[in-house]
Structure to design on (292 residues):
């Protein structure tokens, strides 16, 4: 039996893959690409940055393409060797079959990639859904995590349904019904506090309208599961994040991570503006210099 595609139509897949290709030059780096076989299927990995540099594994957010959030971290490319896999089950070049978010599947998948590249120790980073994957991987393989950086991460607090509904649900429902530019703008403004890049607006609106959305977020991260994980962890949150607002995230992050936690919160949405990306990269560079 043929597995159902996450894309509404093959033309939608091609449209998003073209956006993927268009995004790669915006990384302003020499990019190597490889397909890696894992126990869960073939994974497309981008490698870039300083050759021979310390490894930094970066996991992108759900329901978007890898280069989109990878581009947030361009200032780190000159200092570290970046490994950025396309998440299995999300738009991109990896296989479309989705992994469980409550078990250890994503951590095992990430470890397969580490083994492929013969990486014994690394820094992890993740955006949103990718932050949850980074933390679950570090918890499952603490001996491999030197430090971890989580930007507007999933996996620490549950999806804030009330907070999201208040700011985003009605525009999203209306957009599903009529594909109106006004509703599209309302959604992207809610995600980014009104500062989303034009190319990202088109990508996100296409995905929201024509791709099977992954609503299940990485969870099941507890203090018990983190008991062997002792690495420093930077958490960067947005006060206006529609999914994981800082006032909810901070309380749980402290409970989970204790004195391992370094915390920064900014007056930003789930998608940071260029100004806040500069602040985020300064925080990450300082954190890496201190702990890596």
């Amino acid at each position: 039996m043929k597995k159902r595609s996450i894309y509404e139509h093959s033309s939608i897949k091609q449209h998003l893959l073209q956006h993927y290709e268009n995004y790669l030059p915006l990384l302003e780096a020499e990019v190597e690409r490889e397909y890696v076989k894992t126990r869960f299927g073939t994974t497309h990995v981008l490698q870039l940055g300083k050759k021979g540099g310390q490894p930094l594994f970066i996991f992108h957010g759900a329901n978007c393409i890898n280069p989109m959030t990878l581009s947030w971290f361009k200032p780190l490319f000159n200092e570290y060797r970046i490994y950025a896999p396309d998440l299995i089950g999300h738009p991109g070049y990896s296989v479309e079959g989705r992994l469980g978010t409550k078990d250890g599947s994503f951590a095992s998948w990430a470890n397969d990639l580490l083994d492929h590249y013969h990486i014994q120790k690394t820094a992890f980073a993740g955006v949103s859904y990718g932050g949850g994957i980074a933390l679950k991987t570090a918890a499952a393989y603490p001996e491999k995590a030197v430090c971890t950086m989580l930007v507007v991460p999933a996996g620490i607090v549950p999806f804030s349904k009330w907070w999201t509904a208040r700011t985003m649900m009605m525009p999203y429902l209306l957009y599903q019904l009529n594909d109106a530019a006004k509703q599209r703008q309302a959604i992207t403004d809610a995600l980014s506090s009104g500062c989303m890049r034009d190319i990202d607006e088109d990508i996100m609106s296409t995905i929201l309208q024509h791709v099977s959305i992954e609503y299940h977020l990485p969870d099941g991260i507890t203090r018990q599961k983190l008991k062997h994980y002792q690495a420093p962890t930077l958490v960067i949150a947005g006060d206006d994040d529609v999914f994981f607002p800082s006032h909810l995230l901070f309380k749980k992050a402290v409970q989970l991570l204790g004195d391992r936690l370094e915390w920064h919160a900014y007056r930003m949405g789930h998608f940071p503006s260029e100004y806040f990306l500069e602040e985020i990269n300064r925080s990450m560079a300082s954190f890496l210099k201190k702990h890596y």
User: Anything to note?
Assistant: The mean pLDDT is 90. Strands lie at 32-38, 41-49, 54-59, 80-85, 122-127, 145-151, 233-238, 261-266. The first strand starts at residue 32 and ends at 38. The domain at 10-160+214-291 is CATH 3.40.50.1820 (Rossmann fold).
